[in-house]
Amino acid sequence: MIRDPLLIAVAIKDLRPTQITVGFHEVAEKRRLWASLAGKKRDAFLAQHMVPVLLGPKERHYVTDHHHLVRALHDEGCDTVVVTVVKNLSSLSKDAFWVYVDNRALCHPYNADGERVGFKDIPKSVADLQDDPFRSLAGALRRAGGYAKDTTPFSEFLWADFLRRRIKRGAVEADFATSLKEAMELAKSGEAKFLPGWCGATEE
Q: What mean pLDDT is predicted for residues 4-19?
């Protein structure tokens, strides 16, 4: 029997992230988009961007996608968002929960330097998500056609890590547009061909 998804409204302050970073440049773009909408257009937008969550220990809701949007809505003063529960893991202990989501690529415990850290370092609120400018650069690169959207979990973080090793963070923060041009050249090179969604030229 096919069941309808479970949709509920949850306070944004109560949502738990499953990653440590977002790109603040990308969050700012989503804030501008939200600010440009009003009334029913906002309702329609939210209906098209329901937030998938895991129901974890103590009945807490853990976001598995749309972290940038949720952070943007939080920063814009929104109180609640509609979520869809994709899996109920509330019977698990905290340790078992994180092992489960980690082994199924449902969390990304890497800090703003791209280093793997402990699950305890994942913030308990979207308000505490850290900025990774390379995640913003990777997102902008995809939208500019540097690589194709891919179903690989956290594919944009893989691109962010690739760019992090080749472009200085200060350069990205000081001149995002120029860094995006440099990222585009790198994305088309053979160096990036191992990455998901690579669109570079192949040898005949």
A: 88
Give me the CATH code for the 6-131 domain, please: 3.90.1530.10
Domain covering 133-191 in this structure, CATH number: 1.10.8.10
**CA 113 to CA 134: how far, in whole Å?**
9
C-alpha 42, offset from chain centre: 21
3-state secondary structure of 94: helix
Count of CB atoms within 10 A of residue 164's CB? 21
State the chain's mean pLDDT as an integer: 94
Q: Which phi and psi (to 5°) does residue 7 adopt?
A: -110, 125
What is the C-alpha separation between 122 and 131, in angstroms, rounded? Answer: 13
4 secondary structure, DSSP code: -
**110 beta partners:** 116
148, 158 Cβ separation under 8 angstroms:
no
Report residue 198 as tokens.
């690579």
Count of other CB atoms within 10 angstroms of residue 126: 24
Q: Indicate the domain borders of the chain.
A: 6-131, 133-191
Are 130 and 111 within 8 A, CB to CB? yes
> Is the pTM of the predicted complex or chain greater than 0.70?
yes
- Cβ proximity of 102 and 92 under 8 Å: no
The interaxial angle of helices 155-164 and 176-188, nearest 10 deg, is 100
**Are 200 and 189 in contact, with CB atoms under 8 Å apart?**
yes
**CB neighbour list of residue 39: distance below 8 Å, 6 or more residues apart:** none
